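Methods — Computational structure assignment.
A single polypeptide chain was analysed. Its primary sequence is given first, followed by the predicted tertiary structure written as structure tokens.
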Amino acid sequence: MFNTYITEPLFNLLFFIYALIPGHDFGLAVIVFTLLVRLALWPLVTKQLHSQRAMQKLAPEVAKVKKKAKGDRQKETQMLMELYKEKGTNPFASLLPLFVQIPIFIALFFVLQDSIKAGEVARLAYEPIRNLDAIAALISNKVTLSATLFGLIDLTKPSLVLALLAGGAQYYQTKQLTPKQHEMDDTAKMMANMGKIFPIITVVISMTLPAALALYWAVTSLVAILQQHLVLHRDAEEMKEMA
């Protein structure tokens, strides 16, 4: 069911883009494909960013509540629920968009892995996609899929350049959302430290996987940086108007 309703449609979208792009550059197809997926997720991610921002603004008041509760977990939970209700904030609101994205990210992982395997196009392509000239040529072995980015980077093998780009973009994406040091509570500080570790992990993992996945992750993070900039800038402007 997962393959039928998520993985296969995304696979066919990728190869539909590949067939339409002049020159049939697979790397460019992955970039366009990633942009389209991110645009589809734009409203969900925007909602998640608003929720994260709202929780960050409440951090000082949350710290006061914890201090008043003096370690009484039941009292602390009750006071926090009252605070969230008063401010109209749901601490779990940012999790729903994230849960929606997780199966899509997993599917994309398999899509990009399958797309560079011999015979997978013939097995997974829908009939209308099979009939496109570029795809029909791949299936009949008249041409071989050249899984490269602009003919320069082999996307079937690990790429240090793309791995570093993915890690660097993820680092900046995380830093963009990190509150100022004086606004952080203990949880925020822990998350900030993890934000420094995850980009390193991304680079290490990317160096063990086909570069198509690192390219996808790099483009995803770059789009996220743009989206976060637009959303956070708009929030800041709204706060100025309300002041």
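Note: Residues 239-243 have pLDDT under 50 and may be disordered.
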